[in-house]
Every structure is written in C-alpha cells, then in structure tokens.
C-alpha cells in the first residue's frame, strides 16, 4: 500500500465507478498484490494510448470513488482525452479500469478447479430455499466470482424472483438434458442477469420438471443425471448453486449427489445447505432430509458434507415458539447454524420488484447476512 510520502507526490482524484467494477478492481489488485492507485494509473495510461476506442461500460448506479494519481495525469491528460472522445469522465475512467482488468487477468484463471457446488434443499416448502439460493449467489458474484444458480424447482420461484422468463414446456430444458432428451446445448438455456459485472447467471425452471422423477426412473445411473447435464457448464463457473424443490424424490437424490465431495476436493467446499424456520414443522422436514442424505451416502458410498443450517425469517417477537426453536437448532451442533436471517421487508420487496436482494437493498441487514453466509460456507 502507498505510504504518506508516496501520496505527497500524487494528487487525490474523486470520481465515480459502478460498485461491481470497483469490487472487481479491489479483488484483482489484491490478487496481483498491487495498490489500487497503481492499477488505476496503469489503466488510464493504457486507455490514453489505446489505438481503438474501448467498449462502452454500463456505469448506471455509479458511486463515489477516489484514488491518488501522479500530478497532471487526470486533469491535464485524462480530462482532455475524454472531451476529444466524447465520453464523460465517469465513462472514461470505467473504460480505463476495465481495460486494466482485461489486460491483467486473475491468476485463478490459469488453474482449473472444480466449481464449488452448494445444494440448497429441504423437503418443506416455504422455508426460504429460493431466497437463500439467490442471496448467496449474488454475494459470490458481487465478490468477483462467476456464479450459476440453477432453478431446479419446476414451480419456478427463483426464476420469477430474478425477473427471468421460465422455459416453455416442450422446449429444451434442464429436465430434458437430465433424462437424455436434449434439444440443444445446455449453455443456450443460461440467462445472464444485469449487474454484478455480468457474473451472475441463471438456468431457468421449466414446468416439465414436474415429470422429472418419472423420467429419471427410466435413466441409468439416475443419481448422476444432474451432474451429467451440468458438466458442460462447469468450466465456466467458480460456484454453482442448486435451488432444490421441496421433495424427497429421485430428483432430490440427483441434487444431493451433485453436491457430494469429489476426489481431491476440500471438505465442505461443496455440500448441502439447509434453510429452516424457527417452528416445529421445519424440524420434521429436516429429519426426513437427513435420513435421505444418510441413505444416499450408505447406498452409494459417497460423502455429502453438511454446510449448515440457515434459520430464515426469524422474528423473536413471535415469542416462545420462535426463540425455543432457534435454541433447539443451535443445540444440534452438527450441522451447525451458520446464519439467522431476520424477517424484514426488504426481501419481500425485492421479490415483488423481481430483483436480487443485493441489487435492490444492498445495504440492508438481510443483504449483510447473505454476504456473511456466503463467506461462512465458501
């Protein structure tokens, strides 16, 4: 980092950058062990000498950004160049930072790694599987990772919540790929969401998923059907999140198998995350899911790591039922409670607006919990 003496030889520059681009800059500079000011300086110098105009950058929602640059670089060189190119200072700076990022790829890109697979499941509906799946997916994307969140539930709540059109029954779908009846490449089904630097992608739901258990009963090695379907996409992502249906059927077996620990994989980098609520019916459903996981491990001789329990929509004002249920979840110990998400209005508003929570209310308490949860189970 720059010391005081170095900064005395520079001048402070205050401009704006979109939050996703600022986060990319911060992460990449840290990966390359560079000071952010040096990265910005290099980007501006490359932008000034670029022979072809860089592509326009989406700067909507840009927020204040400050750094330290050599005297004259910003006012004497950069600003006149922006004027001659007909772009705003904010757009020019965004282009310069993007140019630096493109010229300085992440060192992680050179290493082939298996994507971490987070399977979000519970046999009981309405406990918040979709909210948790969308929340941690956005948190990982916000931190600089490429993320695919799969709407594995034919009801399509995740698809609808994120403002994506569901796949029409009869067209190509995840269920078709799992049952050996694809109509195209599965990559063609993936939708990129706006924001988050283009790193958050969704595989939408299709109503034909309601028949998936029947179709899987006729497929060989059906437990691996989801893994076979998603294998062509794995090189594209750092994290893949599966928003499971409220089911204990064959489709859920395939989802749990997908989250198993693969050979050489770090413990708990993949596994099952279980949202519950602080009430008795969640405990009943939890017990059934744990039995299914145990049976699958015994039958197939695999290891499915428990990433933890998420107590969702918690409100202590509901009295003894809520507080005692939370206490009972915490006493389990294994799997541990890794997050308690409060019952606040922002999540419901985000659903109504068809936006990810971290885009609609990035500074809300629920958004903060999602970020901490993503770190906890990283």
UniProtKB/TrEMBL annotation:
Chain ranges of the AAA domain: 120-304
Question: Which Gene3D superfamilies does the UniProt entry name for this protein?
Answer: P-loop containing nucleotide triphosphate hydrolases (3.40.50.300)
Q: Which InterPro entries match?
A: AAA_dom, DNA_Partitioning_ATPase, P-loop_NTPase
- Indicate what this protein is called per its UniProt record: ParA family protein
Which species is listed as the source? Actinomadura keratinilytica
Q: What is the lineage of its organism?
A: Bacteria, Bacillati, Actinomycetota, Actinomycetes, Streptosporangiales
């Amino acid at each position: 980092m720059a010391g005081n003496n170095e900064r005395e030889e520079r001048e402070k520059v205050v401009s704006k950058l979109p939050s996703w681009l600022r986060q990319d800059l911060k992460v990449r500079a840290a990966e390359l062990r560079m000071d952010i000011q040096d990265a910005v300086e290099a980007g501006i110098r490359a932008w000034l000498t670029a022979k072809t105009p860089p592509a326009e950058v989406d700067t909507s929602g840009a927020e204040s950004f400050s750094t330290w640059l050599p005297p004259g670089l910003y006012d004497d060189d950069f600003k006149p160049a922006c004027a001659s190119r007909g772009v705003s200072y904010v757009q020019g700076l965004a282009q310069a930072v993007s140019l630096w990022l493109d010229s300085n790829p992440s060192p992680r890109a050179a290493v082939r790694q298996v994507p971490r697979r987070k399977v979000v499941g519970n046999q009981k509906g309405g406990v918040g599987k979709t909210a948790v799946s969308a929340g941690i997916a956005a948190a990982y994307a916000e931190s600089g990772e490429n993320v695919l969140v799969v709407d594995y539930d034919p009801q399509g709540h995740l698809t609808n919540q994120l403002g994506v059109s569901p796949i029409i029954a009869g067209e190509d779908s995840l269920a078709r790929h799992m049952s050996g009846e694809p109509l195209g490449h599965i990559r063609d089904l993936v939708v990129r969401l706006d924001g988050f630097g283009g790193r958050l992608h969704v595989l939408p739901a299709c109503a034909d998923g309601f028949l998936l258990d029947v179709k899987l009963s006729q497929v060989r090695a059906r437990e691996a059907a989801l893994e076979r379907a998603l294998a062509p996409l794995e090189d594209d992502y750092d994290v893949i999140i599966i928003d499971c249906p409220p089911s204990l059927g064959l489709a859920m077996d395939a989802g749990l198998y997908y989250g198993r620990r693969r050979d050489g994989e770090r413990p708990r980098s993949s596994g099952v995350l279980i949202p519950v609520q602080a009430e008795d019916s969640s405990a009943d459903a939890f017990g059934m899911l744990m039995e299914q996981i145990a049976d699958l491990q015994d039958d197939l001789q695999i290891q499915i790591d428990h990433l933890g329990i998420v107590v969702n929509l918690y409100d202590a004002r509901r009295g003894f039922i809520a507080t005692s249920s939370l206490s009972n979840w915490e006493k389990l110990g294994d799997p541990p409670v890794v997050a308690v998400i409060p019952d606040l209005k922002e999540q419901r508003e985000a659903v109504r607006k068809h936006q990810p929570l971290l885009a609609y209310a990035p500074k809300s308490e629920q958004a903060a919990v999602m970020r901490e949860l993503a770190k906890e189970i990283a």
